[in-house]
Amino acid sequence: MKHQLLKWLLIGYFFCQNITAAYAVLDLELTKGVDSAIPIAIVPFTQHGQNTKIPVDVSDIIGQDLVNSGRFSLLDKQLSNSNANTNYSSKIDLNFWRRKNVENVVTGAIQLLGDGNYKVMYTLFDLYKSRGNDLAVENQAIIRQEFTVKSQQLRSLAHHISDQIYQALTGDKGVFSTQIAYVLVRRDPGEPTQYLLEVSDIDGYNPQTIMRSNEPIMSPSWSPDGKKMAYVSFENKRPRVYISELATGKRQMVTSFPGINGAPAWSPDSKQLALALSKGFNPNLYILDLATKKLTQLTTGLAINTEPQWTPGGQSLLFTSDRGGTPQIYRINLANKVIERVTYDGRYNTTASLSPDSKIMVFLHRTDRGFNIATLNTENNNLQVLTQNGFEESPSFAPNGRMIVYATQYGDHGVLGIVSADGRIKLRLPSKNGSVQEPAWSPFRQ
Amino acid sequence: MTFKQYKWTAMIMSFLLIVACSSSRQANHLNGAQSGQVETAGLGAPPRFPGTNAGMLNPQTGEKYNTVYFKFDSNIIENQYMALIRANADYLKAHSSAKLRLEGNTDPRGSREYNIGLGQRRGNAVADALEVMGISRSQLIVVSYGKEKLAVSGDTEADYRLDRRVEMIYESR
Amino acid sequence: MKNRNAFLISSILHIFLLGILIVNFNFSKPKPIIMAAHEASEPIHAITVDQTKIDQQIKHLKNIEHRKKQAEEQRIKRLQRQAQQAAQKTKQEEQKLASLDEKRRQYEAKQKQEKAEAIRRENAEKTRLESLKKQREAEELERKMRAEESEMLEKQIKEEQKQLALAQAKRWQTEIDKYTALITHAIGRHWIQPDNLTEDISCVLLIKLSPSGEVIDVNLVTSSGDSILDRSATNAVHKASPLPVPSDPELFAKFREIRLKVKPEGYII
User: Which of A248, B58, C218, C238 lies in the 20 to 30 Å Cα band around A430?
Assistant: First the structure.
C-alpha cells in the first residue's frame, strides 16, 4: 500500500509542475503612486421645464466647493460643456470621458415645478466601476439622488451635494455645509467704529449678524452642538463674556468680574466653559460649570495665562502662558492639574487648538517673517509652517480636521484665509465691507 | 508738556466746551465759570467724554493727551510720564467722587487674547503708580483693549509706538 | 530490497516450520509403553494376560497412534499450505514491485524524453535567437556603414551588443524584470493615492491582459479594508491600459495574468 501512495504522490507532483510552467501568475508589487488632486468632470446641470432662469448655478457651486477643498481638480468647463447631455437620464459616453483621464463624472438636472419648488437630480459616475464598456447608467453610478427644495434652499442643497460627492470619493466628511463665525469691523471715516459678530457659509455667502456694537467684540466660540455662541463684548466699556442662542438671538451674560473676562471655550460635552479671568490682576484659567455656575480656578501665579482650548477627549486644556518668559503653549491635565509645556520652537507660540483626531495642533507661531500659522504633529513633534504672509492670526480647525481658517491682511484690511492641514492648498475668502478677524469654524450640522 | 502749556490748553478747551456742549456733565461743571475765566488749581488733565472716538492729539508728537506710552514688550513707565500721572493723582485726590478709567493697549502684533493680557499689565502698572501716589483702587478702573483699539493704522515702528499706550479717561469727575 | 527481505523471512519461516515438523515428527513416533518395574522385594503379582485383550489394547493404541499420525499429517499439510500461501504472497508482492519498478522505469524514461524534448526546444529557440541575432548584427553593420553616426550613438550600439552578448544566458529574466518595472511604473503614474491613510494597508488585484497589453479584466482579490484605496488602485490599472508587454508570445505568457499587490508607501518623484 505504501508503494502505491508514494507512486501517486510522485505522479501528482510532476503533474503540478507541468501545469504551473504553462500558466504562471506573475506577482508584482505597486508602492508608489502620484500625489495629486482627484480629476473630476462636472457637466453643467441641464435645466428642464420652463425657460425661466434657475436662480442658482448648482453645478457651478459644486465645482467651486470641490476645487476649494484642494483635493479635486476640475476638468475644463469647455470640455464638460461639449459633452453636455440634453437629457439628464441618458447614458454618458464612457469612452469620451475615459479619454479625458478623469475617474469620475457628475451630471445633473434642475427642474422648476408647478408649485414654485425645484426638483434637483444628480448622478456621480465612476468610469471604471463596471468592467468593460457596459454603458448602462446603473452600473457606473456611485450615487444617484433626487431632491425637492424651495428656491432659497438651492445654495445649501448644492453644498450638501458637494458633501456627498466629497465623502464618496475621499472617505472624509465634507464641510461644505458648515459655517464660519467672525468679527467684522467697519471703520468708516467720520463714523464711530462698528463691530459686528457675523456667521456666513464657508464661501462667504449668506452673512447673518448675531450682534452689533460700538465697542469691540472678541473670541467667538461655537458650542459643540452648533446652537450657541460664546464671545467677549466690550459694551459699556467692560469686557464681559456672553452666550447667545443662535436660533432666537437670546443672550445671557456669563461673567463680569473686574478686569479681564475673556477667551471662552466650550467643553466637548457642552457643560462647562473655560475662561481667562484676571479679577483685577493677571489673567488665569478658570472653569465655569454652566448649570451650577460654580467657578474653579485652574492656574495661579503672575503670568499671563489665557486662550484655553479643550482637547477633543475633554481631559486636558491647551493654553497660552508666558510663565517661562515668552508666550508658549502649555497643557494642563484636568484630573491631576499637572502642567507641561508643549512648544519649544521659537519665542512666540499662542492660540493653539487640536484637530478632532488630536493628531495635529494648529497655532500661531512667530518666525523672522512675522506671525504665521503652523501645525505641530502631536505624534512625532514635527512642526510645519503653513502660511508665509507674516500677518496671520486666529487659526481655527474645520470639523473634519482637514482645513484651517485664519485671519490675515490683504491690502489695508483684514480678510480670512483657508489652508489645508497639510499646507497644500491656500485660498483667500472674498473681501467684505470692512475688516474681518477672529474666524471660528462651526461644528458639523447636527 | 509744561504746566504753562497745560494752562493754555485748559483755557482753550474750556472755551470750546462752553460753545459746543449743552448738556454734558463737563458743561455743568463749568457752568459757574464766567466766559474767559480759567480754573487754575490742579486740573492738569483735560476732560474726555466717555464714548467719544474723536481723540485729541498733540500735533507735534501725534500722541494723545492724558496717555502714557510704552516701549516694546514693556510695561515699565518711563520717567517722562510721571508728571502726567502725578497730575491725575492730584486731581483724583481732590475729587473723591472722580473715577479714572485706565485703558491698556498694545501694538497690533500677535494673538488678540494674549495682547489683552499685555494691555492689562500696562493698565495695572499705571494703576500701581497712582496707588503709590496715594490713590485708592476704588477710584480706578483698569480695562484692557489689547490690540482692539489701535490708535493708528500702519505697521512702522513709529505706528506701533503710538499704539502701545494707557489712556486715562474720566468716567466721573 | 524488500524482495530479498521478504524472501529471507519466508525462507527462515520455511526452515523454522520444517524444523518444527522434523522435531515434531520425532516426537510423534509411538514409544513402547514400558510397564513400571516393581522392586524385587515386593511379591510379584502375576496377572493373567488375555491375548485378546492384548490385541485389543494394541489395536486401540494403534488407532490412537493412527489418529495422532493423521492429525499430525494434517497439521503438517496445513503448515505446508500456509507456507505455500506465504510463498505465493511473497511472489505476488515481488511481481507487484516488479511492475511498479517497470512503471517507474517507464515514467522516468518518459521524463527523460520530455526533458530531452525541452532541451531540444530550448536549443531550437537558442538557434532561432542566434540566427535572429546574427541577422540583427548584419543589419546593424549595414546601418553603420551607410549612415554617419555620432560617436555617442556608436558607443551605445557597441554597448548594446556587448550587453546582448553578456546577457545571452539571462535574456528572459532581464526581459521579465524590464517589463515588470515598465508595467508597475505605468500603473503608478495613473494611481492617485488617497491622502488620508492612517495604517499600513494593502489590496491585491488580479489583472488579465491581452497580448496587446489591453486590460481585459481587473478583479479585487483581497480588499485593503478601505474602499477608497481599493477603487483608486483598480481605476489606476484601467487608466493605464494598454500596458507595456513583450511582443514575444512566450515571454508575454508570463504577463498574461498579474497578481498586483498595491501598498502605498510613497510617491513617484
Answer: A248
